């Protein structure tokens, strides 16, 4: 299949993302309430009847010099290697691992990046059995930019390592076999925002997902709660961009198998469900009491999709220099956590993430800072389940640019 490659977005300072979907909450939908209720949170990403994990063996072409990447790519005439996705170039033999603290890997001339760098092209073939559905392609983590193509057409671009990027590829797909191509350069303009004290690696290093939604589907949701006396008021906002006549949405809060609150309303694009005076047990790191909140979409009374949120009720307040959690003074006894393994680098399995969380709890750690970027969303779920306060961190650090920013650690990101 032939592709006309863009090849310029990664060094175009005006382009940070192109044609990606609006950011949303992470969730793995299932086709019914009963299936999501019985799904193990550790396996839900891989066993959903709506989401297909595209991770596994991919074709890969490595270019030592990016000027060797053709303007017109014909995948039928490319000699591809085989790599496992997720992985990084530095841990699969294409490049040597690099560890740095403050410096960048290239001469400091923001926002310019080197003319010559390595590049890579990924390819994955997958089958589609129903073209009447809505298809969203999700990259949970990549370093540090992706230019996405499907079946000969340009889809979009995104940079910002460790952040999720999603694309609607419904119109690009055809019945039967389809071809996904991803062009990645080692650096981009956004690399200036990612000067962290860590190994600097390149590649698609988290799972790639393909969600097949019906014509009516839930795109996003948000849960928040406020303490009112000794009880809690909870709000759940639901975004249903595509819905048909006869669609309803139900939000239900469960304590184990017991439903303690529920409401169902006619579907609309922006919905708000409010629950007042909930008599609930508060969550904390010592006793991580969780409820299950389910959001289910129905069409003519039949379930279309359902999602689950691990819900904890708590209050957070800072008075002077003292941190209060549920009205009580606490101290953070914490660690930093990198996505890092000796052999696979940025790539961590669910089992390895859970092993790290168990180790933290065994050493009386009560808090963790995912440094220096948002972690795999599954890591947040583990912290909910085991009981860890999370100081989440944005993927922004520019201390390598002190000399051009008058010693301002965040000078570039402020501009």
Structural descriptors:
mainly beta; 7-stranded antiparallel β-sheet; 5 helices; globular
Shape: globular
Count of extended strands:
30
Rg: 23 Å
Biggest sheet architecture:
7 strands, antiparallel
Helical coverage, percent range? under 10%
Mean pLDDT: 96
Oligomer: single chain
Quick synopsis:
By secondary structure, this protein is mainly β. It has helices at 33-38, 44-47, 350-362, 377-386, 411-414, and strands at residues 2-4, 17-18, 51-53, 56-63, 72-74, 81-85, 98-100, 119-128, 134-139, 142-143, 145-150, 153-159, 165-168, 176-185, 198-200, 203-204, 208-213, 220-228, 231-239, 247-255, 258-266, 270-278, 291-299, 302-311, 316-319, 322-325, 328-330, 334-337, 367-370, 389-390.
Summarize the topology.
Layout: E1 2-4, E2 17-18, H1 33-38, H2 44-47, E3 51-53, E4 56-63, E5 72-74, E6 81-85, E7 98-100, E8 119-128, E9 134-139, E10 142-143, E11 145-150, E12 153-159, E13 165-168, E14 176-185, E15 198-200, E16 203-204, E17 208-213, E18 220-228, E19 231-239, E20 247-255, E21 258-266, E22 270-278, E23 291-299, E24 302-311, E25 316-319, E26 322-325, E27 328-330, E28 334-337, H3 350-362, E29 367-370, H4 377-386, E30 389-390, H5 411-414
Parallel strand pairs: 28-29, 29-30
Antiparallel strand pairs: 1-5, 2-12, 3-17, 4-6, 4-8, 7-15, 8-14, 9-13, 9-17, 10-16, 11-12, 11-14, 18-19, 19-22, 20-21, 20-23, 23-24, 25-26, 26-27
């Amino acid at each position: 299949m032939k592709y006309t490659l863009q090849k310029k977005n990664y060094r175009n300072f005006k382009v940070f993302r192109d044609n990606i979907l609006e950011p949303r909450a992470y969730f793995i939908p299932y086709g019914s309430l009963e299936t999501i209720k019985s799904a193990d949170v550790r396996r839900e990403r891989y066993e959903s009847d709506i989401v297909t994990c595209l991770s596994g063996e991919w074709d890969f072409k490595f270019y030592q010099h990016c000027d060797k990447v053709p303007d017109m790519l014909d995948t039928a005439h490319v000699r591809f290697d085989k790599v496992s996705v997720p992985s990084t170039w530095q841990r699969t033999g294409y490049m040597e691992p690099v560890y740095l603290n403050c410096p960048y890997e290239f001469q400091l001339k923001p926002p310019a990046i080197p003319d010559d760098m390595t590049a890579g092209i990924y390819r994955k073939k997958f089958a589609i059995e129903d073209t009447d559905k809505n298809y969203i392609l999700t990259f949970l983590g990549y370093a540090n930019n992706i230019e996405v193509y499907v079946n000969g057409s340009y889809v979009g671009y995104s940079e910002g390592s460790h952040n999720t990027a999603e694309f609607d590829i419904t119109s690009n797909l055809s019945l039967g076999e389809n071809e996904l191509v991803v062009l990645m350069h080692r650096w981009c303009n956004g690399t200036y925002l990612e000067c962290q004290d860590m190994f600097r690696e390149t590649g698609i290093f988290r799972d790639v997902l393909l969600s097949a939604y019906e014509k009516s589907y839930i795109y996003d949701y948000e849960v928040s709660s406020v303490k009112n006396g000794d009880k809690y008021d909870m709000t759940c906002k639901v975004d249903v961009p595509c819905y048909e006549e006869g669609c309803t949405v139900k939000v239900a809060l469960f304590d184990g198998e017991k439903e303690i609150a529920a409401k169902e309303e006619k579907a609309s694009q922006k919905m708000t469900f409010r629950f007042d005076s909930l008599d609930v047990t508060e969550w904390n790191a010592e006793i991580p009491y969780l409820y299950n909140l389910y959001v289910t979409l129905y069409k003519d009374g039949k379930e279309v999709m359902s999602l689950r949120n691990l819900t904890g009720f708590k209050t957070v307040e800072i008075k002077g220099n003292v941190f209060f959690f549920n009205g009580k003074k606490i101290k953070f006894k914490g660690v930093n956590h990198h996505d890092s393994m000796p052999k696979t680098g940025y790539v961590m399995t669910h089992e390895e993430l859970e092993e790290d969380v168990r180790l933290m709890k065994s050493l009386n750690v009560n808090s963790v800072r995912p440094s220096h970027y948002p972690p795999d969303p599954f890591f947040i779920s583990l912290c909910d389940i085991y009981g860890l306060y999370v100081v989440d961190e944005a993927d922004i650090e520019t201390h390598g640019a002190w000399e051009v920013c008058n010693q301002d650690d965040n000078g570039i990101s402020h501009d």
